Amino acid sequence: MYNLHLSPEQLEIRDTVRDFVTEQIKPVVLDAGRLDVCDRRLPMDLLDRASQMGLRTLALSEDRGGAGADHLTSCIVTEELAAGDADVAAILSESSRLGHLLFDQAMTDAQRDRFLPQFLKNDRYHLAFAGREAETETKLGVNYHRPAGTDAAVKTVAAPAANGEWVVNGAKTCVANAPIAALFAVLVQIPGQLRAKVILVPADTSGLSVSRPQKTWLHGSYGDVTFKDCRVAADNLLDDDAAVLLTGADAAGKGMPSFQALNLGVGRAAYEAAVEYAHLRVQGGRPIIEHQAIGTKLAEVAIKLEVARAIIWQAAWASDHPAAFADRSLSDLPLQTVAQVFTAEMMMKATKDAAEVFGAMGVMRDMPLQKYVHDARVCLHSGDGNTDAKLRLAEVIAGYRRVTNGARAAAGE
Amino acid sequence: MDFELSNEQRSWQMLARKFADEEVRPISLERDAIPTARETFDWDIIKKGSKLGFRTMAVPKQFGGHGTDFVTQALVMTEIAKADSAVSKAFSQNWKWSHLICTSCSDEQKERFLRPFVADDTFLLGKGITEPSAGSDNRLPPEDDIKAGLKLKAERHGDEWILNGEKAFIANAPIGKLFFVDARTNPKVPLKQGTTLFLVPRDTPGFRIGKVFNKSGWRFYQNGEMIFENARVPHANVVGDVGGAVRKAGGTGSDTTGGDLFGDLELCANGLGICDDACETAMRYVKTARQGGRVLFEQQNVQLQINRMFMLTEALRSYVMRVAWEHDRKIHSCNAGLAMNYSTDVVQEVTELYLEIRGAEGCQMDAHADKLARDAIIWTHLAGDSVQRMKVARRLAKFTDHRAA
Question: Which residues of B touch A39 (CB under 8 A)?
Answer without folding.
Answer: 35
